[in-house]
Specification:
This protein is an all-alpha fold. It is built from 17 helices and no strands.
């Protein structure tokens, strides 16, 4: 009974505050995190049961990222410019995070978790703003979409490094690093072979089955299997979920629109809201105040690392000042993978409440600030081009 009440309150609060957030022009994830913070300081405590449901949420969050957002054909078509720009924005954000941790005397492992948390981008926030301003097909907009694919893949790779280091509780030695790379290659290779020679045929047979929702159920089973198989291989479950999603993205039967809609409904309607509420419930408001200037600097360095990195990457590939500013602002938002990273770090005892809460604050601020700066940069770019053509 208590579990049902907790889930009821979590989902109800998440839906209400997510809707309010969307209505005022902010992403729903902000409302879900806020719901968690409010529930955590009032009526609910984080329990092992909530944590287990949240774990399912993060698995399906990363599975959906691979299943719906990453396409191998798009990777082949992506330009070298997008690769270069992605490299710059991730590298500079990574350096900003590690440097900040090192300056404040954090251990190498803590600093690395902070650096990895600084590195990902949440492109969904940016795409909405670009669509609203009819700028998605512009040079910066097109490159952001290509960059987002590489960003997801690189960020997931960095998360795999963090989860492996957490197992050893230290920076990886060359042999440990090579072992992790070997496991990752074997895992991806096996998943690719399964996708090409087993899953594609399996879905062909499943499509002929009379049982209702057979394709949907099989997609869910693949998500859970890939997460479990990754753990068997000594990798984190989220890595497996992401790779499993990417492999299914190339099987047409598994990508039928109706099935995609149902998978998204399960993930975004129930499981991932529990994860984001769980994140909010884990935030300790007192620790934010106790950390003081460190909290402020995490937010400032986190924002500037992506802004400067994106700007530098875009300038390197030949964009003008305002186009580069658009790209830099567009890659500022942090959300899903950043929150997954710090959840892993906290769960495995690498980072404490202060860093965890500060990075959640960074994600919230970045989601709020990025669209404002992006709109300003787009407006300036339009004015600049109009004056040049006039």
């Amino acid at each position: 009974m208590e579990f049902l009440f907790q889930i009821l309150i979590i989902l109800l609060s998440a839906r209400l505050l997510s809707e309010i957030s969307e209505r005022v022009g902010m992403p729903g994830i902000l409302g879900e995190i806020l719901a968690g913070i409010l529930l955590g300081i009032t009526v609910l405590e984080n329990t092992d049961t909530i944590s287990s449901v949240a774990q399912l949420g993060v698995i399906f969050l990363l599975f959906i990222a691979g299943y719906k957002e990453v396409h191998i054909e798009d990777l082949k078509a992506s330009s070298k410019k997008a690769i270069i720009a992605t490299f710059f924005q991730i590298l500079i954000a990574f350096i900003a995070g590690f440097g900040l941790g090192y300056f404040f005397g954090l251990g190498n492992l803590e600093s690395l978790v902070l650096a990895v948390a600084f590195s990902p981008t949440s492109i969904g926030v940016t795409v909405k703003t670009l669509l609203d301003m009819n700028y998605l097909s512009s040079k910066p907009g097109s490159m952001m979409l290509s960059s987002a694919i590489f960003d997801d893949i690189i960020s997931i790779f960095l998360v795999s490094i963090v989860s492996t280091m957490a197992q050893y509780n230290s920076i990886l030695s060359p042999m440990q690093f090579l072992t992790m790379i070997g496991k990752l290659i074997v895992f991806v290779g096996v998943m690719y072979l399964l996708s090409r020679y087993v899953l594609s045929r399996l879905f062909g047979h499943v499509r002929k089955m009379h049982a209702r929702e057979s394709i949907f159920a099989t997609v869910i089973l693949v998500a859970l299997f890939s997460a479990y198989f990754a753990e068997v291989m000594g990798l984190h479950a989220v890595i497996g979920a992401f790779v499993g999603g990417v492999m299914l993205s190339n099987i047409p039967v598994a990508k039928i629109e109706d099935v995609q809609s149902k998978v998204s409904g399960l993930a975004y309607g129930m499981l991932t809201p529990v994860f984001f509420v769980h994140i909010g419930m884990s935030v300790d408001p007192k620790s934010l105040g106790a950390a003081g200037i460190f909290t402020v600097l995490i937010v400032v360095f986190g924002l500037l690392g992506k802004l400067v990195g994106g700007f530098a990457g875009a300038k390197t590939v030949g964009f003008n000042f305002y186009e580069s500013l658009i790209f830099g602002a567009g890659v500022m938002p942090r959300a899903e993978v950043t929150l997954v990273t710090i959840s892993i770090g906290r769960e495995m005892g690498i980072i404490g409440e202060e860093i965890f809460s500060a990075v959640v604050l960074l994600a919230a601020v970045s989601i709020f600030v990025a669209p404002i700066l992006l709109k300003f940069a787009i407006q300036k770019d339009k004015e600049n081009k109009n004056s040049a053509s006039g």
